[in-house]
Amino acid sequence: MSDPDRPEPGEYDVVVVSNRLPVDRVEEPDGSVSWRSSPGGLVAALEPFMRRTDGAWVGWSGAPGDAPEPFDEHDMHLVGVPLSEGEVAEYYEGFSNATLWPLYHDVIAPPVFHRRWWDVYVQVNRRFAEAAARQASQGATVWVHDYQLQLVPGMLREIRPDLRIGFFDHIPFPGYEIFAQLPWRRQVVEGLLGADLLGFQRGADAANFLRACRRAAGLRTSGSTVRAGDRTVTARAFPISIDTPGFGDLARRDDVQARAKEIREALGDPRHLLLGVDRLDYTKGILHRLKAFGELLDDGRLDVHDTVLVQVASPSRERVEQYQALRDEVEATVGRINGDHGELGHQPVHYLHHSYPKEEMAALYLAADVMLVTSLRDGMNLVAKEFVACRHDETGALVLSEFTGAADELGGAFLINPHDIQGVKDTIVRAVESGEREQRRRMRTMRKRVREHDVSRWASDFLGALDAAGGARDDAGAPGEGGDAATAGDGAAAAPA
Ligand code: F6P
After folding, report:
1. Among 46, 91, 316, 375, which residue has the most ligand 1 atoms within 8 Å of its CB, making it the best to mutate?
2. What is the pLDDT of residues 354-378, one digit of tens each?
3. Residue 247 to residues 41, 251, 279, 415: CA-CA distances in angstroms?
4. How many DSSP H helices and E strands does the chain contain?
5. Same structural domain, 258 and 309
6. Predicted pLDDT of residue 489
7. Which residue from 55, 195, 267, 290 has the highest number of Cβ atoms inside 10 Å of its Cβ?
8. 399 & 483 share domain
9. For residue 315, is it within any domain?
10. Does 198 have pLDDT greater than 70?
11. Which DSSP symbol is given to 346?
Protein backbone atom coordinates (compact mmCIF):
# COMPACT_ATOMS: atom_id res chain seq x y z
CA MET A 1 0.00 0.00 0.00
CA SER A 2 1.37 3.40 -0.87
CA ASP A 3 2.17 5.92 1.87
CA PRO A 4 0.31 9.23 1.23
CA ASP A 5 3.28 11.18 2.66
CA ARG A 6 5.71 9.39 0.33
CA PRO A 7 4.42 9.89 -3.22
CA GLU A 8 5.18 7.25 -5.84
CA PRO A 9 8.27 8.21 -7.86
CA GLY A 10 7.55 9.92 -11.18
CA GLU A 11 9.25 9.35 -14.52
CA TYR A 12 11.77 12.20 -14.86
CA ASP A 13 15.45 11.83 -14.01
CA VAL A 14 15.94 15.59 -14.04
CA VAL A 15 13.39 18.02 -12.62
CA VAL A 16 13.83 21.78 -12.59
CA VAL A 17 11.69 23.76 -10.15
CA SER A 18 11.31 27.52 -10.39
CA ASN A 19 8.63 30.00 -9.43
CA ARG A 20 7.73 30.63 -13.06
CA LEU A 21 7.50 28.35 -16.03
CA PRO A 22 9.36 29.65 -19.08
CA VAL A 23 6.03 30.70 -20.58
CA ASP A 24 3.22 32.78 -19.09
CA ARG A 25 -0.42 32.03 -19.74
CA VAL A 26 -2.11 35.05 -21.29
CA GLU A 27 -5.85 35.43 -21.74
CA GLU A 28 -6.58 37.48 -24.85
CA PRO A 29 -9.53 39.95 -24.88
CA ASP A 30 -11.55 37.49 -26.99
CA GLY A 31 -11.15 34.83 -24.26
CA SER A 32 -8.60 32.73 -26.14
CA VAL A 33 -5.44 31.61 -24.34
CA SER A 34 -1.90 32.06 -25.58
CA TRP A 35 1.59 31.48 -24.13
CA ARG A 36 4.18 34.23 -23.96
CA SER A 37 7.84 33.94 -22.97
CA SER A 38 8.10 34.90 -19.30
CA PRO A 39 10.42 37.68 -18.13
CA GLY A 40 13.76 37.62 -16.37
CA GLY A 41 17.23 36.19 -16.38
CA LEU A 42 16.33 32.86 -14.80
CA VAL A 43 14.19 31.75 -17.72
CA ALA A 44 16.64 33.15 -20.28
CA ALA A 45 19.42 31.07 -18.72
CA LEU A 46 17.56 27.83 -18.04
CA GLU A 47 15.53 27.49 -21.21
CA PRO A 48 18.42 26.50 -23.51
CA PHE A 49 19.57 23.92 -20.94
CA MET A 50 16.07 22.46 -20.51
CA ARG A 51 15.49 22.21 -24.27
CA ARG A 52 18.43 19.86 -24.47
CA THR A 53 17.44 17.86 -21.39
CA ASP A 54 14.77 15.22 -21.26
CA GLY A 55 13.44 16.53 -17.97
CA ALA A 56 10.38 18.20 -16.47
CA TRP A 57 10.07 21.87 -15.49
CA VAL A 58 7.77 22.55 -12.54
CA GLY A 59 6.51 26.12 -12.03
CA TRP A 60 3.68 28.62 -11.98
CA SER A 61 2.00 29.70 -15.22
CA GLY A 62 1.99 33.40 -14.28
CA ALA A 63 -1.82 33.65 -13.89
CA PRO A 64 -3.93 33.03 -10.77
CA GLY A 65 -6.29 30.07 -10.69
CA ASP A 66 -6.05 26.45 -11.75
CA ALA A 67 -2.83 25.21 -13.26
CA PRO A 68 -2.94 24.04 -16.86
CA GLU A 69 -2.61 20.28 -17.42
CA PRO A 70 1.06 19.30 -17.95
CA PHE A 71 1.99 20.20 -21.53
CA ASP A 72 4.91 20.18 -23.96
CA GLU A 73 6.17 23.44 -25.40
CA HIS A 74 9.45 24.25 -27.23
CA ASP A 75 10.77 20.69 -26.55
CA MET A 76 10.15 21.00 -22.81
CA HIS A 77 7.76 19.14 -20.53
CA LEU A 78 6.06 21.78 -18.38
CA VAL A 79 4.15 21.05 -15.19
CA GLY A 80 2.04 23.86 -13.74
CA VAL A 81 1.65 24.63 -10.03
CA PRO A 82 -1.58 26.51 -9.21
CA LEU A 83 -1.59 29.75 -7.20
CA SER A 84 -4.83 31.38 -6.05
CA GLU A 85 -5.32 35.16 -6.27
CA GLY A 86 -4.55 35.42 -2.55
CA GLU A 87 -1.36 33.36 -2.91
CA VAL A 88 -0.18 35.52 -5.80
CA ALA A 89 -0.71 38.56 -3.56
CA GLU A 90 0.87 37.10 -0.41
CA TYR A 91 3.48 34.59 -1.58
CA TYR A 92 4.62 36.17 -4.88
CA GLU A 93 3.96 39.92 -4.63
CA GLY A 94 4.20 39.95 -0.83
CA PHE A 95 6.82 37.70 0.75
CA SER A 96 8.90 37.07 -2.39
CA ASN A 97 8.90 40.55 -3.87
CA ALA A 98 8.17 42.97 -1.04
CA THR A 99 10.06 41.11 1.74
CA LEU A 100 12.86 38.96 0.30
CA TRP A 101 13.64 40.89 -2.88
CA PRO A 102 14.45 44.24 -1.20
CA LEU A 103 16.13 42.49 1.76
CA TYR A 104 18.43 40.46 -0.50
CA HIS A 105 19.24 43.55 -2.60
CA ASP A 106 20.79 45.39 0.33
CA VAL A 107 17.50 47.07 1.41
CA ILE A 108 17.52 49.53 -1.51
CA ALA A 109 13.80 49.68 -0.74
CA PRO A 110 12.50 48.94 2.77
CA PRO A 111 11.44 45.29 3.15
CA VAL A 112 7.97 44.65 4.55
CA PHE A 113 7.54 41.87 7.12
CA HIS A 114 4.11 40.25 7.57
CA ARG A 115 3.58 37.01 9.49
CA ARG A 116 0.65 36.12 7.26
CA TRP A 117 2.84 36.41 4.12
CA TRP A 118 5.36 34.04 5.70
CA ASP A 119 2.64 31.45 6.39
CA VAL A 120 1.55 31.57 2.77
CA TYR A 121 5.18 31.34 1.58
CA VAL A 122 5.53 28.11 3.59
CA GLN A 123 2.26 26.75 2.21
CA VAL A 124 3.18 27.49 -1.41
CA ASN A 125 6.73 26.15 -1.03
CA ARG A 126 5.20 22.89 0.19
CA ARG A 127 3.01 22.71 -2.90
CA PHE A 128 6.04 23.16 -5.19
CA ALA A 129 7.96 20.48 -3.26
CA GLU A 130 5.08 18.02 -3.60
CA ALA A 131 4.68 18.76 -7.30
CA ALA A 132 8.41 18.15 -7.88
CA ALA A 133 8.29 14.93 -5.84
CA ARG A 134 5.52 13.61 -8.10
CA GLN A 135 7.63 14.16 -11.25
CA ALA A 136 11.01 12.90 -10.01
CA SER A 137 12.01 9.29 -10.66
CA GLN A 138 13.74 7.19 -7.97
CA GLY A 139 17.14 8.78 -7.23
CA ALA A 140 16.48 11.66 -9.67
CA THR A 141 18.21 15.01 -9.64
CA VAL A 142 15.98 17.93 -8.68
CA TRP A 143 17.31 21.43 -9.29
CA VAL A 144 15.44 24.14 -7.37
CA HIS A 145 15.83 27.81 -8.28
CA ASP A 146 15.76 31.15 -6.59
CA TYR A 147 14.57 33.04 -3.55
CA GLN A 148 10.87 32.30 -4.02
CA LEU A 149 11.49 28.61 -3.23
CA GLN A 150 14.08 28.51 -0.45
CA LEU A 151 12.11 26.05 1.68
CA VAL A 152 11.62 23.54 -1.13
CA PRO A 153 14.97 21.70 -0.69
CA GLY A 154 14.22 20.87 2.97
CA MET A 155 10.59 19.90 2.29
CA LEU A 156 11.58 17.77 -0.67
CA ARG A 157 14.23 15.92 1.31
CA GLU A 158 11.61 15.08 3.94
CA ILE A 159 9.23 13.51 1.44
CA ARG A 160 11.83 12.07 -0.98
CA PRO A 161 15.12 11.32 0.79
CA ASP A 162 16.24 9.33 -2.28
CA LEU A 163 16.67 12.50 -4.40
CA ARG A 164 19.78 14.42 -5.23
CA ILE A 165 18.85 18.05 -4.62
CA GLY A 166 20.56 21.18 -5.88
CA PHE A 167 19.58 24.80 -5.32
CA PHE A 168 20.74 27.86 -7.23
CA ASP A 169 20.24 31.39 -5.92
CA HIS A 170 19.95 33.79 -8.86
CA ILE A 171 20.02 36.94 -6.75
CA PRO A 172 22.54 38.21 -4.18
CA PHE A 173 22.66 36.63 -0.72
CA PRO A 174 22.99 39.55 1.70
CA GLY A 175 25.51 40.14 4.45
CA TYR A 176 24.44 38.78 7.83
CA GLU A 177 23.68 42.19 9.33
CA ILE A 178 20.97 42.60 6.71
CA PHE A 179 19.81 38.96 6.54
CA ALA A 180 19.43 38.96 10.32
CA GLN A 181 16.44 41.33 9.97
CA LEU A 182 14.38 38.44 8.60
CA PRO A 183 12.22 37.08 11.43
CA TRP A 184 12.32 33.63 9.80
CA ARG A 185 16.09 33.60 9.08
CA ARG A 186 16.71 30.24 10.78
CA GLN A 187 13.89 28.50 8.90
CA VAL A 188 15.19 29.87 5.58
CA VAL A 189 18.72 28.64 6.26
CA GLU A 190 17.42 25.22 7.31
CA GLY A 191 15.16 25.02 4.25
CA LEU A 192 18.09 25.69 1.94
CA LEU A 193 20.23 23.12 3.72
CA GLY A 194 17.92 20.36 2.48
CA ALA A 195 19.99 20.59 -0.71
CA ASP A 196 23.23 18.67 -1.30
CA LEU A 197 24.70 21.60 -3.20
CA LEU A 198 23.89 25.31 -3.02
CA GLY A 199 25.03 27.53 -5.88
CA PHE A 200 25.44 31.29 -5.69
CA GLN A 201 26.40 33.90 -8.27
CA ARG A 202 29.56 35.08 -6.49
CA GLY A 203 31.95 33.81 -3.85
CA ALA A 204 30.83 36.68 -1.61
CA ASP A 205 27.22 35.43 -1.71
CA ALA A 206 28.30 31.91 -0.73
CA ALA A 207 30.41 33.33 2.12
CA ASN A 208 27.42 35.38 3.33
CA PHE A 209 25.28 32.25 3.34
CA LEU A 210 27.86 30.22 5.27
CA ARG A 211 28.04 32.98 7.84
CA ALA A 212 24.24 32.90 8.14
CA CYS A 213 24.48 29.14 8.79
CA ARG A 214 26.76 29.82 11.73
CA ARG A 215 24.96 32.84 13.11
CA ALA A 216 21.29 32.06 12.45
CA ALA A 217 21.33 28.27 12.80
CA GLY A 218 24.35 27.65 15.04
CA LEU A 219 25.95 25.26 12.53
CA ARG A 220 29.59 24.46 11.92
CA THR A 221 31.16 25.39 8.60
CA SER A 222 34.44 24.37 7.11
CA GLY A 223 35.72 26.00 3.93
CA SER A 224 32.77 25.90 1.57
CA THR A 225 30.86 23.21 3.45
CA VAL A 226 28.43 23.16 6.35
CA ARG A 227 27.40 20.26 8.57
CA ALA A 228 23.60 19.84 8.64
CA GLY A 229 22.68 16.92 10.86
CA ASP A 230 24.45 13.90 9.41
CA ARG A 231 24.96 15.53 6.02
CA THR A 232 27.60 17.82 4.58
CA VAL A 233 26.25 20.55 2.32
CA THR A 234 28.44 22.50 -0.07
CA ALA A 235 27.85 26.21 -0.84
CA ARG A 236 29.88 27.64 -3.73
CA ALA A 237 29.86 30.19 -6.50
CA PHE A 238 28.67 29.13 -9.96
CA PRO A 239 28.32 32.36 -11.96
CA ILE A 240 25.44 31.98 -14.39
CA SER A 241 25.75 32.75 -18.08
CA ILE A 242 23.88 32.93 -21.37
CA ASP A 243 23.41 30.93 -24.54
CA THR A 244 26.44 32.56 -26.17
CA PRO A 245 26.34 30.60 -29.47
CA GLY A 246 22.59 31.24 -29.73
CA PHE A 247 23.01 35.02 -29.36
CA GLY A 248 26.04 34.95 -31.68
CA ASP A 249 24.00 33.21 -34.40
CA LEU A 250 21.11 35.61 -33.98
CA ALA A 251 23.38 38.62 -34.31
CA ARG A 252 24.85 37.23 -37.55
CA ARG A 253 21.45 36.79 -39.19
CA ASP A 254 20.83 39.09 -42.17
CA ASP A 255 17.35 40.06 -41.00
CA VAL A 256 18.64 40.98 -37.52
CA GLN A 257 21.45 43.08 -38.97
CA ALA A 258 19.01 44.78 -41.32
CA ARG A 259 16.73 45.51 -38.38
CA ALA A 260 19.67 47.03 -36.46
CA LYS A 261 20.27 49.43 -39.37
CA GLU A 262 16.59 50.23 -39.53
CA ILE A 263 16.55 51.06 -35.79
CA ARG A 264 19.42 53.53 -36.20
CA GLU A 265 17.72 55.13 -39.19
CA ALA A 266 14.43 55.44 -37.33
CA LEU A 267 16.29 57.29 -34.57
CA GLY A 268 17.75 59.77 -37.09
CA ASP A 269 21.13 58.04 -37.45
CA PRO A 270 22.63 59.53 -34.28
CA ARG A 271 26.39 59.63 -33.79
CA HIS A 272 26.03 58.05 -30.36
CA LEU A 273 23.32 55.55 -29.57
CA LEU A 274 23.19 54.65 -25.86
CA LEU A 275 21.09 51.69 -24.74
CA GLY A 276 19.59 50.50 -21.44
CA VAL A 277 17.65 47.21 -21.19
CA ASP A 278 16.13 46.23 -17.86
CA ARG A 279 13.10 44.90 -16.10
CA LEU A 280 11.50 47.99 -14.62
CA ASP A 281 12.96 47.33 -11.17
CA TYR A 282 14.41 49.69 -8.56
CA THR A 283 17.54 47.51 -8.27
CA LYS A 284 18.54 48.40 -11.84
CA GLY A 285 19.54 52.02 -11.17
CA ILE A 286 17.47 53.38 -14.08
CA LEU A 287 16.92 56.73 -12.31
CA HIS A 288 20.66 57.09 -11.62
CA ARG A 289 21.34 56.46 -15.32
CA LEU A 290 18.72 59.00 -16.42
CA LYS A 291 20.07 61.59 -13.99
CA ALA A 292 23.59 61.19 -15.38
CA PHE A 293 22.35 61.32 -18.97
CA GLY A 294 20.15 64.38 -18.34
CA GLU A 295 23.04 66.24 -16.68
CA LEU A 296 25.39 65.41 -19.56
CA LEU A 297 22.89 67.07 -21.91
CA ASP A 298 22.49 70.03 -19.49
CA ASP A 299 26.28 70.44 -19.33
CA GLY A 300 26.61 70.17 -23.10
CA ARG A 301 29.08 67.28 -22.71
CA LEU A 302 26.72 65.22 -24.87
CA ASP A 303 25.14 66.99 -27.80
CA VAL A 304 21.42 66.44 -27.97
CA HIS A 305 21.53 66.65 -31.78
CA ASP A 306 23.69 63.61 -32.19
CA THR A 307 22.95 61.51 -29.10
CA VAL A 308 20.01 59.26 -28.32
CA LEU A 309 19.31 57.03 -25.31
CA VAL A 310 16.99 54.07 -25.90
CA GLN A 311 15.66 52.74 -22.61
CA VAL A 312 13.77 49.45 -22.75
CA ALA A 313 12.04 48.93 -19.40
CA SER A 314 10.07 45.71 -19.51
CA PRO A 315 6.98 45.59 -17.30
CA SER A 316 7.56 43.75 -14.02
CA ARG A 317 5.63 43.06 -10.78
CA GLU A 318 3.20 45.80 -11.67
CA ARG A 319 0.93 45.33 -8.67
CA VAL A 320 3.71 45.80 -6.11
CA GLU A 321 3.59 49.35 -4.73
CA GLN A 322 7.32 50.06 -4.96
CA TYR A 323 7.28 49.11 -8.66
CA GLN A 324 4.35 51.40 -9.35
CA ALA A 325 6.14 54.30 -7.65
CA LEU A 326 9.30 53.58 -9.65
CA ARG A 327 7.40 53.56 -12.92
CA ASP A 328 5.88 56.97 -12.15
CA GLU A 329 9.28 58.40 -11.28
CA VAL A 330 11.05 56.97 -14.33
CA GLU A 331 8.33 58.22 -16.65
CA ALA A 332 8.33 61.70 -15.07
CA THR A 333 12.13 61.86 -15.41
CA VAL A 334 12.05 60.78 -19.06
CA GLY A 335 9.34 63.38 -19.69
CA ARG A 336 11.45 66.08 -18.02
CA ILE A 337 14.58 65.29 -20.05
CA ASN A 338 12.62 65.16 -23.29
CA GLY A 339 10.75 68.35 -22.36
CA ASP A 340 14.00 70.20 -21.57
CA HIS A 341 16.05 68.96 -24.50
CA GLY A 342 13.69 67.64 -27.16
CA GLU A 343 12.80 69.37 -30.38
CA LEU A 344 10.04 68.80 -32.89
CA GLY A 345 10.86 65.49 -34.54
CA HIS A 346 13.69 64.68 -32.12
CA GLN A 347 13.72 63.48 -28.56
CA PRO A 348 16.84 62.40 -26.65
CA VAL A 349 15.25 59.55 -24.67
CA HIS A 350 13.21 56.81 -26.33
CA TYR A 351 11.47 55.00 -23.53
CA LEU A 352 9.84 51.65 -24.31
CA HIS A 353 7.74 49.98 -21.64
CA HIS A 354 7.52 46.62 -23.42
CA SER A 355 9.13 43.20 -23.62
CA TYR A 356 10.62 42.22 -26.95
CA PRO A 357 11.50 38.92 -28.60
CA LYS A 358 15.15 37.88 -28.73
CA GLU A 359 15.54 38.93 -32.39
CA GLU A 360 14.60 42.52 -31.58
CA MET A 361 16.89 42.53 -28.53
CA ALA A 362 19.81 41.30 -30.64
CA ALA A 363 19.10 44.04 -33.20
CA LEU A 364 19.09 46.66 -30.43
CA TYR A 365 22.39 45.32 -29.03
CA LEU A 366 23.89 45.56 -32.53
CA ALA A 367 22.52 49.04 -33.14
CA ALA A 368 23.93 50.51 -29.90
CA ASP A 369 27.30 52.17 -29.45
CA VAL A 370 27.28 52.14 -25.66
CA MET A 371 25.37 49.78 -23.39
CA LEU A 372 24.51 51.15 -19.92
CA VAL A 373 24.12 48.74 -16.99
CA THR A 374 23.87 50.78 -13.80
CA SER A 375 22.35 48.33 -11.27
CA LEU A 376 22.55 49.27 -7.60
CA ARG A 377 22.66 45.54 -6.86
CA ASP A 378 22.30 42.65 -9.28
CA GLY A 379 22.98 38.92 -8.85
CA MET A 380 24.56 38.68 -12.31
CA ASN A 381 22.95 40.88 -15.04
CA LEU A 382 22.67 38.76 -18.14
CA VAL A 383 21.89 41.75 -20.37
CA ALA A 384 25.56 42.77 -20.11
CA LYS A 385 26.61 39.31 -21.32
CA GLU A 386 24.00 39.26 -24.11
CA PHE A 387 25.31 42.59 -25.44
CA VAL A 388 28.88 41.24 -25.51
CA ALA A 389 27.82 37.98 -27.18
CA CYS A 390 26.12 39.90 -30.00
CA ARG A 391 29.09 42.17 -30.81
CA HIS A 392 30.91 39.92 -33.23
CA ASP A 393 32.53 42.92 -34.95
CA GLU A 394 34.20 43.62 -31.57
CA THR A 395 32.99 47.24 -31.43
CA GLY A 396 30.73 48.89 -28.85
CA ALA A 397 31.41 49.78 -25.23
CA LEU A 398 29.87 48.43 -22.05
CA VAL A 399 29.41 50.70 -19.02
CA LEU A 400 28.86 48.32 -16.12
CA SER A 401 28.05 48.72 -12.43
CA GLU A 402 30.54 47.28 -9.95
CA PHE A 403 27.56 45.95 -8.02
CA THR A 404 26.65 43.29 -10.56
CA GLY A 405 27.94 39.72 -10.56
CA ALA A 406 28.93 40.34 -14.20
CA ALA A 407 31.51 42.92 -13.08
CA ASP A 408 33.59 40.09 -11.56
CA GLU A 409 33.87 38.50 -15.00
CA LEU A 410 33.77 41.27 -17.63
CA GLY A 411 37.10 42.95 -17.06
CA GLY A 412 36.84 44.85 -20.35
CA ALA A 413 33.86 46.92 -19.23
CA PHE A 414 33.97 50.57 -18.17
CA LEU A 415 33.19 50.03 -14.49
CA ILE A 416 31.13 52.51 -12.49
CA ASN A 417 29.72 53.06 -9.03
CA PRO A 418 26.13 54.07 -9.91
CA HIS A 419 25.81 56.17 -6.73
CA ASP A 420 28.68 58.37 -7.91
CA ILE A 421 26.79 60.40 -10.51
CA GLN A 422 29.86 62.45 -11.42
CA GLY A 423 31.81 59.24 -11.96
CA VAL A 424 28.98 57.78 -14.06
CA LYS A 425 28.91 60.91 -16.22
CA ASP A 426 32.67 60.91 -16.76
CA THR A 427 32.67 57.21 -17.58
CA ILE A 428 29.80 57.53 -20.06
CA VAL A 429 31.76 60.27 -21.83
CA ARG A 430 34.90 58.10 -21.84
CA ALA A 431 32.92 55.18 -23.28
CA VAL A 432 31.26 57.38 -25.92
CA GLU A 433 34.62 58.81 -26.94
CA SER A 434 36.57 55.54 -26.86
CA GLY A 435 38.21 54.73 -30.17
CA GLU A 436 37.83 51.57 -32.19
CA ARG A 437 41.16 50.18 -30.98
CA GLU A 438 40.29 50.51 -27.31
CA GLN A 439 36.81 49.09 -27.90
CA ARG A 440 38.21 46.06 -29.69
CA ARG A 441 40.75 45.40 -26.94
CA ARG A 442 38.06 45.55 -24.28
CA MET A 443 35.44 43.66 -26.26
CA ARG A 444 37.82 40.82 -27.12
CA THR A 445 38.52 39.96 -23.49
CA MET A 446 34.83 40.07 -22.63
CA ARG A 447 33.86 37.95 -25.63
CA LYS A 448 36.46 35.37 -24.69
CA ARG A 449 34.91 35.09 -21.23
CA VAL A 450 31.31 34.66 -22.42
CA ARG A 451 32.43 32.24 -25.15
CA GLU A 452 34.30 30.02 -22.73
CA HIS A 453 31.79 30.31 -19.95
CA ASP A 454 28.34 29.99 -21.45
CA VAL A 455 25.14 28.67 -19.93
CA SER A 456 25.77 25.05 -20.85
CA ARG A 457 29.11 25.19 -19.09
CA TRP A 458 27.36 26.73 -16.05
CA ALA A 459 24.75 23.96 -16.00
CA SER A 460 27.26 21.17 -16.47
CA ASP A 461 29.59 22.62 -13.80
CA PHE A 462 26.71 22.79 -11.35
CA LEU A 463 25.27 19.37 -12.15
CA GLY A 464 28.73 17.78 -12.11
CA ALA A 465 29.39 19.23 -8.67
CA LEU A 466 25.93 18.12 -7.54
CA ASP A 467 26.72 14.57 -8.65
CA ALA A 468 29.92 14.63 -6.63
CA ALA A 469 28.25 16.29 -3.62
CA GLY A 470 25.37 13.80 -3.62
CA GLY A 471 27.86 10.94 -3.81
CA ALA A 472 29.72 12.29 -0.78
CA ARG A 473 26.47 12.34 1.21
CA ASP A 474 26.76 8.84 2.65
CA ASP A 475 30.38 8.96 3.69
CA ALA A 476 30.32 12.54 5.02
CA GLY A 477 32.81 13.17 7.82
CA ALA A 478 32.05 13.83 11.47
CA PRO A 479 30.94 17.31 12.58
CA GLY A 480 33.77 19.79 12.94
CA GLU A 481 36.19 17.87 10.74
CA GLY A 482 38.59 19.98 8.74
CA GLY A 483 41.32 22.36 9.84
CA ASP A 484 39.54 25.70 9.34
CA ALA A 485 36.25 24.77 10.96
CA ALA A 486 34.36 27.78 12.26
CA THR A 487 31.95 27.33 15.11
CA ALA A 488 28.52 28.76 15.71
CA GLY A 489 28.37 32.44 16.42
CA ASP A 490 32.07 33.14 15.89
CA GLY A 491 31.39 35.59 13.10
CA ALA A 492 34.50 34.47 11.16
CA ALA A 493 34.23 34.79 7.38
CA ALA A 494 34.31 31.41 5.66
CA ALA A 495 36.62 31.01 2.71
CA PRO A 496 34.54 31.36 -0.46
CA ALA A 497 35.12 28.78 -3.13
O1 F6P B 1 16.38 36.43 -11.33
C2 F6P B 1 15.51 37.03 -10.49
C3 F6P B 1 14.06 36.81 -10.86
O4 F6P B 1 13.24 37.07 -9.79
C5 F6P B 1 13.74 35.44 -11.36
O6 F6P B 1 13.47 34.51 -10.35
C7 F6P B 1 12.59 35.70 -12.25
O8 F6P B 1 12.52 34.78 -13.25
C9 F6P B 1 12.88 37.08 -12.80
O10 F6P B 1 13.67 37.72 -11.87
C11 F6P B 1 11.65 37.87 -13.16
O12 F6P B 1 10.88 38.11 -12.03
P13 F6P B 1 9.33 37.77 -11.97
O14 F6P B 1 9.18 36.30 -12.17
O15 F6P B 1 8.93 38.23 -10.62
O16 F6P B 1 8.69 38.53 -13.07
Report:
1. 316
2. 999 999 999 999 999 999 999 999 9
3. 14, 6, 19, 23
4. 17, 18
5. yes
6. 32
7. 195
8. no
9. yes
10. yes
11. B
Which of 17, 18, 20 gets mutated to test ligand 1 (max ligand atoms within 8 A of its CB)? 20
CA of 496 to the centre of ligand 1 (A): 26
> Within a domain: residue 225?
yes
Q: Does residue 169 contact residue 379 with C-beta atoms inside 8 Å?
A: yes
Residue with CA closest to ligand 1 atom 10:
40
Q: Are residues 157 and 254 in the same domain?
A: no
pLDDT at 118 over 60: yes
* 158 and 93 part of one domain: yes
Burial code (b: 16+ CB inside 10 Å, e: under 16) for 228-260 equals beebbbbbbbbbbbbbbebbbebbeeeebeebb
Tell me: pLDDT of 196 over 60: yes
For residues 365 and 270, membership in a common domain is answered with yes
Contact 166, 462 (CB under 8 A): yes
- CA gap 468, 276 in Å, rounded: 40
pLDDT above 70 (res 459): yes
**pLDDT at residue 24 greater than cutoff 90:** no
Per-residue confidence (pLDDT) for residue 25, from 0 to 100 = 81
Arithmetic mean of pLDDT, 91-95: 98
Nearest-CA residue for ligand 1 atom 9 is: 40
Nearest atom (ligand 1) to Cα of 97: 15
CA-to-CA dists, residue 190 to 10, 216, 443, 486, angstroms: 26, 9, 42, 18
**Which residues' Cβ are closer than 6 Å to ligand 1?**
19-20, 39-43, 146, 170-171, 316-317
Q: Which of ligand 1's atoms lies nearest the C-alpha of 146?
A: 6
Q: Count the domains in the chain.
A: 2
pLDDT of residue 3: 64
Alpha carbon separation from 486 to 85, 169, 237 (Å, rounded): 44, 23, 19
- State whether 121 and 92 are in the same domain: yes
pLDDT for the residue numbered 27: 82
What pTM was computed for the model? Answer: 0.92
How many A from CA of 290 to the centre of ligand 1? 24
Mutate to test the pocket of ligand 1, among 17, 19, 60, 124 (most ligand atoms within 8 A of CB): 19
Would residue 492 count as lying in a domain? no
Judge if 254 and 174 occupy the same domain.
Answer: no
Same domain? For 317 and 207 the reply is: no
Residue 301 alpha carbon to ligand 1 centre in Å: 36
Report the nearest-CA residue for atom 4 of ligand 1: 40
- In the chain, what percentage of residues exceed pLDDT 90? 84
Average pLDDT over residues 55-78: 91
Taking all residues of the chain, what is their mean pLDDT, rounded to a whole number? Answer: 92
pLDDT at 421 over 80: yes
The residue segments making up the domain with residue 317 are: 244-452
User: CATH number for the domain including 427?
Assistant: 3.40.50.2000
Residue 59 lies in a domain: yes
Q: Among residues 314, 272, 310, which one has the least CA distance to residue 428?
A: 272
